[in-house]
Amino acid sequence: MADRLFAGLMLVVAVAYAAVATKIQTSFLGDPVGPKLFPIGIATAAAIACLFIIFKPTADTTWPDLPTFARILVALAILITYTYLLKPLGFVIPTALVAGGLSFLIAGHVVRSALTGVGLAIGLYVVFRFLLGLSLLGFPKSWFGV
Amino acid sequence: MDTISLLMQGFDVALTPTNLMLAVAGCIIGTIVGALPGLGPSNGVALLIPLAFSMGLDATESLVLMTSVYYGAMYGGRISSILLNVPGDEPALMTTLDGYPMAKQGRAGDALVLSGVASFVGAFLATIGLMFLAPTLAQVAYLFGPAEYFALYLLAFSTLGGLASKSQAKAVLASCIGLGIAMIGLDNFSGMPRLTGGSMHLMDGVDFLVAIVGLFAITEVFVFIESHGKESSIGVTLNKITIPIKEILGSTVTMLRSTVIGFIAGILPGAGASLGSFLAYSAEKSIAKDKETFGTGNPKGVAAPEAGNNAAAGGALVPMLTLGVPGSGTTAVLLALLMTLNITPGPLLFEERPEVVWGLIAALLIANVMLLVLNVPLVKLFVKILMVPPRVLLPGVTMVSFVGIYSLSGSSFDLLLMIGFGVLGYVLRKLDIPTVPIILGILLGNHMEDSLRRAMVVSGGEWQYLFSSWIAIVLWIAAMVGFTAPLFLRNLIKKPTAHDH
Amino acid sequence: MKLKMQQLVAGISLSVGLIGTSFAAECIAPANPGGGWDFTCRTIGKIMYDIGAVADPVQVTNMAGAGGGLAYTHVVNERNDDGDLIVAASSATATRLAQNAYGGMTADQVRFLGAIGADPGVIVVAKDSPHQTLTDLLDAIKADPASVAFAGGSAAGGFDHLKALMALNRVGYTDIRSVKYIGVDSGADAITQTIGGFTQAMTGDISEAVGFIKSGDVRVLAVFTDERLPGEFSNIPTAKEQGVDVVAVNWRGLYVPKGIDQADYDKWSDALAKVAASQEWADAMTANGLAPFTKVGDDFQTYLDGVIAEVQTMSKELGVIQ
After folding, report:
1. Would you say the CATH fold of C120-242 matches that of C23-119+249-318?
2. Per-residue pLDDT reduced to its tens digit, B137-149
3. Residue C197's closest chain B neighbor by CA?
4. Helix (H/G/I), strand (E/B), else coil: C292
5. Chain C residues close to B411, C-beta within 8 Å
6. Which of A6, B216, B442, C137 could be joined to B86 by an S-S link, Cβ 3.0–4.6 Å?
C-alpha cells in the first residue's frame, strides 16, 4: 500500500514537473534539443516507473508505532530549529543544545546527554575552526562588541 | 632516457626528509578530510593550497603534500562508508552497498583491510599506468566527442537498474528523481533558469554533497530512532580483527578488472572517480555467479568500487597532465595548483618539465605505500569508532554533517535542503527504493544532457550522429544490453576496455 | 581508546599546526580550472601575496556555470558586503551583462576594480585541418555553414562565440543562427574537441592554447589584435592583415561586491595596481601571451561602460539579442 501511495504521489509530482518544464524560457540562440526535452523526458520516465510500481507493488512496509513516530518528528523539529539558530547564535551554543537533544532522544539520560552536547560542540568547533581552517563563527557576533 | 631512470630521478627529488614528513602529514589530513561526511578530496586539496604557499614550499614539496592529501582522501572516504553507512565523499558512495552490511555482520575490520588493499592495488597500478602510458593514453581523450560521452553516461544509467535488489521500476524512479533534481538551476546552454520556481537559492542547482549527506547521514538519525539502534551498525559486536587473507585472494581478479575499468573512466575528462567506482561495481555484480549476495556484504562488492575509484583517481591525472583538462573535481584543483606554480600542463609537460612530472609520479607511489602501511594497522583504531556509545556517535556524525555543508556554502537554505533529503531518504529506505541512483543522477545528469545537446548542435540535429563511431556504437550496445539483460553485459564490458590498450 | 584518539588528534594538530593560517581573502574564478578566469585568480592572487600587497594567501574558489552567471548571482545575492572577496572578470563578463544573459542582473550590481592585462582572441584549428588561413575558414562557412562547428569555453552567445560571429560579419556573412557553436567547460576542453575532430575550429584566447601551439597539435589561423604579438608568437598573422577587421581582446580583471566599504575597495585597487606594476606580473604575461592593458578604478569603470554599450549595439546588429 505504501508503495502505491508513494508512487501515486510521485506520479503527481512528475506531471507537475513536466507542466513546469513546458514553460521553461528558451533563449535567443536555440539548439536543436532545447532546454525542455530532458526535463520532460525525465518526468515521462518517472511516470512510467510510477505506473509500474502502482500495478506491481512489492512487499508492504511496516511503519513505526505512534510514540516512535513522534520521536522522529521531534528529531526533525530539532534539526530544523538548528538551521535557524546557526547564523544568529554561532556554532557552539546551538550545537551543544541540538547534539544534547539528539543524544537525549536516543539514550534518555539528561546528564550524559548534556555532557555529550557540550563536549561535541566544543570539540568539533576546535577541529573545524583550527585544525581544518574552515571559516566558522563560534559565538554570536554581538559577543565581540560588533 | 628510459622510464626507469627517469623514475629514479623522480625518487631522488621526492625522497627527502621534508618531503617524507609532508607525505605523512598529507596522508593523515587527507584520510580525515575524506572520512568526514561533506568534505571530499577536492575540499581537502583546495583547503591546503594556501597552506602550501604560506609555508613557502617549492613546486615538488607542494605536489608531494597535495598528492598525499588527494590519495589520502580517496582512501579515507571508505571508512565512514563502511562503518557508518555515510559516504565520506562521492567516490566512496558505492562502498556503502556492501561495506556497511559487512560491518553489520561484525566484519568491519575485514571490510576496512580489504578495501584498503583494494585501494592500494587500484591506485598503485593506475600510477604505473600513468608512468608508462600517459602520453599515449592522452590520445583517448581525442576519441571522445559529444556523442561518445552521451553514450557513456547512458551506459552508466542503464546499468543502474541492476542495483536494485527487487524492483527495477524502483531503481528507474530513483534515477529519475536524481536526474530531475540535476535539471534544476541555470541551463548551461542558454543561461536561462530552469525549474527553480524563481528561487535564487536554486539558481546554482542542488549540490550533490547536500544530497549525499542528507540521504545518508540525516536519514540515519531517523532510522536509528525508529529501530532503537537495531538496524544500525552503531553498537554492533565486533569479531576479532585479522587480515582477511581469503577475501583478499578471492577478490584479486575483481581488483584487477575494476582497476582497468576505473582507470579508463578516470582518463576520460568529465567521467571521474564516481563513474569509475560505479561501473566497476556494476560490472562485477553482473558477471558474478552469486549476484544476489551483492548488497548483503559480499567482499567483492567492497573491493571493486575501492579499486575502481582509486584507479580512476590515478587515471584522471593523465588528461590533467597531458592536456590540461581535469578529469574530476579534485584534479581540477591539482591543475590549478600546478598553474599557480607556473607549470602549465599540456602536451609538452612530460618533455619540458620532466623533474616535475617524475617527482609527482614518485610522490604518488610514496603516498600510496605510506597509506597502505598507515591504513592496515589503523583499522584497529578506526573500528573503535563503533565502540563509541550511540548517544555520542550519532549526534556527532549529524553535527559533522551540518558543519561540513554549512562551512562550505554558509547557506542555511542548503541545510534545510539537506534535512529535506534526510526525510526523503527515510521514506525511500522504508519503501526499499535505492538512494544511490539519486546521487548518480545528480552527479551525472547535467553532463549527460550537455553531451546530447552538444552532439545535436555539432551534427545539426542529425540523430544518426549519436552512432557515428565504433566507440559510441559499442557503448550504446552495452547500454541496451545492460538495461535489458544484465547476463550479457559481461562480454561487452570487457570488449571496450580491451580495445583501449 | 580515548587515549589513542587523543594521541591521534594531538599528532595531527602537531603535523598541521601551521593550518592556523587564516585565508583572509578569497578569489572566485567563475569557471573550471584551466581557463582564463582561473588563470586570473591564481596568478593575481599569488602575486598579490608574493609582493606583500595582501597579508595572507588568497584562496581560490572555482564556481563554474552559465558563463560566469552562477558566480555573479552568488556574489550579488549572498556576498554583497564581503570585503574579502574578489572575483575574476573579463570581456566575457561584460559581454554577458551587456546581453542581459545573467538572468536580469546588471553591470551596476557589483563594482569593477580594474583590468591589468589582455588576452588576444584567436581562432585555432587542428594541425591536419584543410583550412590554412582565416579567410579559408570563413569562405568554407559561407559556402556551407554546416561544414564547420566552433568550440569555445564560453556559453552560446558569449564572447568566444561573438568573436567568430564578428569575423563572419566582416566578410559579409549574416546568417548568424546557422553557425554551429558549442560551449564546453573550458578552453582546454574546446581544443581537445577540436584536435579530436569533433569540432573544426576553436575560438578562444591565446593563453588557453599556448601548450598546444608549442607542441604543434594546433595551428593558429588568426589573432584578433591591431598589431602582431611580440616574441615567439610573432609569426601568427592578425585577422586585420587578412582583411577581417576584428579586434577582440579579452581583458583580465576583477570585480568586487557592490556593498563593501570604500576602504576595502581602495585596498583592493591598490593591491591590483601593485600587481600591474610588478615584474612577476610582467613575466606571467609574457609566459601566457598576454598584452599589457592596465586600467584600475574609475578609469576602468568608464572604459567598461563604453564597452558594454558597444557590445549591446553589436549584439543587436548581429541579431544575438532582439
Report:
1. yes
2. 777 778 888 999 8
3. B142
4. strand
5. 78
6. B216
> CA B351, B353, B356: angle at the middle one, nearest 5?
130
Tell me: pLDDT of B497 over 80: no
- In B, which residues are within 8 Å of A23 by CB distance? none
Fold of the CATH domain C120-242: D-Maltodextrin-Binding Protein; domain 2 (3.40.190)
CB contact under 8 A, B323 and C188: yes
Minimum Cα–Cα distance from B179: chain A residue = A42
Domain ranges of chain A: 2-55, 66-141
Q: Which of A26, A29, A137 to mutate to test the interface with C (most CBs of C within 10 A)?
A: A29
Quote the CA–CA distance of A24 and A12 in Å, as a whole number.
19
Cβ neighbours of C78 in B, within 8 Å = 410-411
pLDDT tens per residue across span C82-113:
888 899 998 878 888 888 777 678 888 888 99
> CB–CB of A27 and C321 under 8 A?
no
pLDDT under 70: residue ranges of chain C: 1-24, 32-35, 64-67, 103, 289, 314, 317-322
Q: Is B257 exposed, middle or buried (0-12, 13-18, 19+ CB in 10 A)?
A: buried
| Closest to B205 (Cα-Cα) out of B411, B403, B39 | B411
What's the rounded Cα separation, in Å, for the pair A119 and A137?
17
- Cβ proximity of C246 and C255 under 8 Å: no
Three cell numbers at B335?
Answer: 591543475
Model pLDDT, residue B42: 67
Asked if B399 and A124 come within 8 Å (Cβ–Cβ), the reply is yes
Contact status of C193 with chain B (Cβ, < 8 Å): yes
Encode B210-235 in three state secondary structure. HHHHHHHHHHHHHHHHHHCCCCCCCC
pLDDT at residue number A97: 92
Do A49 and B452 count as a contact with CB atoms less than 8 A apart? Answer: no
The CA-CA-CA angle for residues C317, C318, C319, to 5°, reads 90
Determine the average pLDDT of the residues in B184-191: 75
Q: Tell me how close the Cα of B370 comes to any Cα of chain C, in angstroms.
A: 16
Contacts of A30 in chain C (CB under 8 A): 177
- In C, which residues are within 8 Å of B144 by CB distance? 196
If you count residue pairs, one on A and one on B, with CB atoms under 8 Å apart, how many are there? 192
Average pLDDT over residues B262-269: 83
Residues of A in contact with B433 (CB under 8 A): 6
A interface test, pick of B166, B195, B399 with most A CB neighbours within 10 Å = B399
Domain boundaries defined on chain C: 23-119+249-318, 120-242
The residues near B303 (Cβ < 8 Å, ≥ 6 apart) are B114, B115, B117, B118, B247, B251, B254, B255, B258
B142–C192 CB contact, under 8 Å: yes
Q: Where would I find the H helices in A1-146?
A: 2-21, 37-55, 66-89, 92-107, 110-126
Distance from CA of A45 to the nearest CA of B (A): 7
Q: What are phi and psi of B37, to 5 degrees?
A: -60, 135
pLDDT digits (tens, 9 = 90+) for A48-94: 999 988 988 877 777 888 888 898 999 999 999 999 988 788 888 99
Please calculate the CA angle B362-B368-B372 and round it to the nearest 5 degrees.
Answer: 150
Chains in touch with A (3+ beta-carbon pairs under 8 Å) read B, C
CATH of C23-119+249-318 among 3.40.190.150, 3.40.50.150, 3.40.50.720, 3.30.70.330: 3.40.190.150
Give the Cα separation of C301 and C309 in Å (integer).
Answer: 12
Model confidence at B491, in pLDDT bands (50, 70, 90)? very low
**Strand B193-194 vs strand C25-29: parallel, antiparallel, or unpaired?**
unpaired
| Of the candidates B372, B363, B375, B373, the residue with the CA atom closest to the CA atom of residue B68 | B363
DSSP state of C184: -
